[in-house]
Specification:
By secondary structure, this protein is of the alpha/beta class. The protein is 22% helix and 33% strand. One of its GO terms (cellular component) is cytoplasm.
Length: 228
């Protein structure tokens, strides 16, 4: 769907342990610059952060409900406030869009398709909604009105047609940590995770599903060293 014109594989790296957010951003920016200059290849970097909030370029101060709860970082990605923490798989996506068609709308659609394909491995139907960023699931139970919860956030930035930042898939985070913000500015819907949906999915299993889906959407990958 969004492969490279030369079919060159992207690097695929996974960090163990919790990665400091400012250090991760610095590493992303350095790698994106090197990709733009032609001195480094593409990289998808999977990691976990310690509990924190990030404010995208559209964040509203009123949506930070508990400023003292966790560290808050300004972020250059698109979107509003989001949470990162243990049990959430963050995937930072440093791709060269000059090799992939320079179509921002198609790129965002490919990111959505990537997450939806990964969720499908666990028989979870991920959906997108007009006017709402990210991937959502509809929850139904007898005698209860259906509701929609967000299971994955998407927020990216482009510089010289190289992407960075990426997606955050809720595998087993502490969902109460989201209560310190209005996630992505949406008040009428909640957040969920694979484990919250009753699926005992591990991060390793989520990683395998993400890798398989990435290959279908973006093309082949090869193992690479993580920045940290």
């Amino acid at each position: 769907m969004f492969g490279r014109d030369d079919d060159r594989p992207a690097g695929w790296a996974v960090s163990t342990g919790l990665v400091d957010y400012p250090a991760a951003v610095a590493a992303m920016e350095a790698r994106a610059a090197a990709i733009a200059e032609g001195s480094a290849g593409e990289l998808v970097w999977l990691l976990e952060h310690p509990p924190l909030y990030t404010a995208g370029v559209s964040a509203k101060p009123a949506d930070l409900l508990d400023a003292g709860r966790f560290p808050v970082f300004e972020s250059g990605r698109g979107g509003q406030f989001t949470y990162h923490g243990p049990g959430q798989r963050v995937a930072y996506v440093m791709l060269d869009l000059t090799k992939r068609g320079r179509d921002v709308r198609a790129f965002v659609g490919a990111l959505e398709a990537w997450v939806i394909g990964a969720l499908d491995a666990f028989n979870v139907r991920g959906e997108i909604r007009e006017g709402r960023v990210g991937v959502w699931v509809e929850r139904r139970a007898p005698g209860v009105p259906p509701r929609e919860d967000k299971i994955a956030a998407i927020g990216v930035k482009l510089r010289r047609w190289v992407s960075f930042h990426g997606i955050a898939l809720n595998v087993e985070p502490d969902l109460s940590h989201f209560s310190g913000i209005v996630p992505c500015g949406v008040t009428e819907h909640g957040v969920t995770s694979l484990v919250d949906l009753g699926l005992p999915v591990t991060l390793d299993e989520a990683d395998a599903a993400l890798k398989a889906s990435f290959r279908r959407v973006f093309g082949e990958v090869e193992d690479a060293a993580a920045p940290f």
